[in-house]
Every structure is written in C-alpha cells, then in structure tokens.
C-alpha cells in the first residue's frame, strides 16, 4: 500500500528536498507551508494532486493547523510519516542584544508549532505504526555564541523526540531526531534578515551540507525495517568541527 508522509515547511530548503525524495521513492506527500504559490508549484513538480497535497497555513496558529489537518481528503487522510521540518532561526546576536519578537517567533514555530502538529497527528500515526522525524540541530548539542534561544528550541526538539519514544512504547511508532550542522539553504537568509553577503560569507569555501543530504538521511531512516529505530543522527559537513572553549580574561 502506498505510504503518505506529511512534511512541514516544504516550501524551501530541507522540506522541499525531503518532499521530492519521498515522492521520488513512491510515497504520497502532504506538503505544508505559508506560501500557496510555492506549494502549488511543488505539487506540480511532484506529479500533481494524486501524489501531493498542499496545506497552506501558519504552523504557529493552532486553529489553522487543526483546520488544515481536518481538511485532508480521503486519499491523504492516513499519515505514515510526520516530518517536523518547519522551523527557523532569527538573528545571531548575543542574548543581551536580541529582539524579543525574534525569540517569540522561534519559540512559537520551533517548539509550540512542532508540539501541536505532533499532538494533532499522533492518533493517525499510531493507527499506522508510523514514523516521526523531528528536525533538531547541532545547536541542540553544542552551544555557540548567538545560538541562545535558537539552540534552546532545538534542545527541546531533541529531548521531546526522546520523550515521545518513551511514551509511544508498544505502539510501533518510531521517532528520530535529526541534528544537522552547517547547511546551505534559505534558512540562513531568514536568520540573517536577507543578508546575501553574510550568506555567501558563511558558506565560502566550506562545502556545506545540502538539503538533499538531509533528505537522504531521513529517507534512509524511513526505509529501515519497522523494528529499527534510529534515535538521533548528528550530521556535519566535513569542513565543520569543534574549536576550543573560549576563556575571557580581564
Ligand atoms: C543550524 C545549523 O550550525 O547554524 O541548525 O547551528 S547551525
């Protein structure tokens, strides 16, 4: 039987690549995001309404999320995999210089939106002995200057994933936390407020991860036998590694 994956934040970057990968492998995909035109173009590129179904809403809005899920047509009503990809970073400033609206946007999307979407699809996922893949980040594992609330939201995603595994014991539902490092996508343009020069500087000579690399790892997780759970995957480009701790001296 054809399986169905719901991919949040599918209008760019990782989400777009994940949707393309799953559709390429014969899955039906529900693609969500805030930009209807991009969703429509993606549905077209994926093979049309038999293969892909768009849901246009803001994941920070619980009522809109409920209404979107309730609107799913019969052919897309069963969900075998939830890929919680929607998320963002805003800014790289130290905490003492940050804008509270930026912090709220990250908390509302990366934590609240992800938790609500998960809760609202859990019954369907349990019915299908399905899979949840949550997009965390290396920022969940490694603090860095300017990571503050972004890293905190991703630590939530990682720990929420592990907690879900405990609660879903016996249901057959698998849960995986994916923790990417330096990756080239629209994510960085959002983080820098559209600063293309900063975007180019970040990636210059670094050969960063590409969205297709993340899609590859998530599809691998999904395609494993039903008795195999990958708890977490931390992925970096070869160019990225750790530097020593900083020491401030007076
Ligand atoms: C984004 C990756 O390296 O900027 O989650 O924290 S990094």
From TrEMBL:
The keyword Oxidoreductase applies. This is NADP-dependent 3-hydroxy acid dehydrogenase. PROSITE patterns: ADH_SHORT. Belongs to the short-chain dehydrogenases/reductases (SDR) family. It comes from the Bacteria. InterPro entries: NAD(P)-bd_dom_sf (IPR036291), Sc_DH/Rdtase_CS (IPR020904), SDR_fam (IPR002347). Keywords: Oxidoreductase. Pfam families: adh_short (PF00106).
């Amino acid at each position: 039987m054809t399986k169905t994956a719901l991919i949040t934040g599918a209008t760019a970057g990782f989400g777009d690549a994940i949707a393309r990968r799953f559709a390429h492998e014969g899955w039906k995909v529900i693609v969500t995001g805030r930009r209807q035109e991009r969703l429509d173009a993606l549905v077209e590129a994926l093979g049309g309404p038999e293969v892909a179904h768009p849901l246009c809403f803001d994941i920070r809005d619980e009522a809109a999320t409920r209404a979107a899920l309730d609107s799913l047509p019969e052919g897309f009503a069963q969900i075998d995999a939830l890929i919680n990809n929607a998320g963002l970073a805003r800014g790289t400033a130290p905490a003492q210089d940050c804008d509270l609206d930026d912090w709220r946007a990250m908390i509302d999307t990366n934590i609240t939106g992800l938790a609500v979407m998960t809760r609202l699809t859990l019954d369907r996922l349990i019915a299908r002995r399905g899979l949840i893949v949550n997009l965390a980040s290396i920022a969940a594992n490694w603090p860095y200057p300017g990571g503050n609330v972004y890293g905190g939201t991703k630590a939530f995603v990682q720990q929420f994933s592990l907690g879900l595994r405990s609660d879903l014991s016996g249901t057959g539902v698998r849960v995986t936390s994916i923790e990417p490092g330096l990756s080239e996508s629209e994510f960085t343009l959002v983080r820098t407020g559209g600063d293309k020069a900063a975007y180019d500087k970040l990636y210059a000579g670094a050969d960063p991860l590409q969205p297709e690399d993340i899609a590859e790892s998530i599809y691998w997780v999904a395609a494993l036998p039903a008795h195999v759970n990958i708890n977490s995957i931390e992925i970096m480009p070869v160019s990225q590694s750790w530097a020593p701790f900083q020491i401030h001296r007076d």
